[in-house]
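Today's session is about reading a structure prediction critically. Students often jump straight to the picture, but the first step is always the sequence itself: look for stretches that repeat, for charged clusters, for runs of hydrophobic residues. Only then move on to the predicted structure, which in these notes is written as discrete structure tokens rather than atom positions. Here is the chain we will use throughout the hour.
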Amino acid sequence: MPYTNAQKKQHIRELQTYLNAISFLNGHIPTIVPDGVYGKETIFAVKMFQREYGLSETGSTDSVTWNKVVSVYRSYMRSEPVAYNAFPSASYVAHLGEQGQLIYILQAMLNDVGKNYDNAPEVNVCGQYNMETSNAVRFIQKKIGIPQSGNVDSTVWNMLVSCCEHINGTLLRGKKN
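Below is the predicted structure for this chain, in token form.
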């Protein structure tokens, strides 16, 4: 049975999908849109992949390149999760009025604590450091015996991370059922 154009396009799209996924984990590989066309962008991405992984930089996908792409893709897909350090530095302090990814994570941790311990407030996860978030932080600060500023420094952050990692611990008394 002959190799059809539809099969060829599907194989190119598969290659592009693998390269695109690899590009998220290896910044030396350019991001490409899987469209099934082996055009300039794909040729360039293949060349950059070949350069990065010590292969001949032809821009063509021979069996050696294909096998390496598949191998790298599979190793990334099976790898241990990469730790994500969301808190910027030991001297940083998150406070009322801030917004963004760090605040989403903070609120998710506060919400987790609130769902698992009596009297601990749950917060709306919205990405905006609002009064609800500040009050929940004050509650946590009071429970661990530190000044109740409503701000999150590395001490409060580390305590929340630890608490969420060990949600069955006894840091806060009165675990919910």
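Discussion point for the tutorial: The two ends are 63 Å apart (CA to CA).
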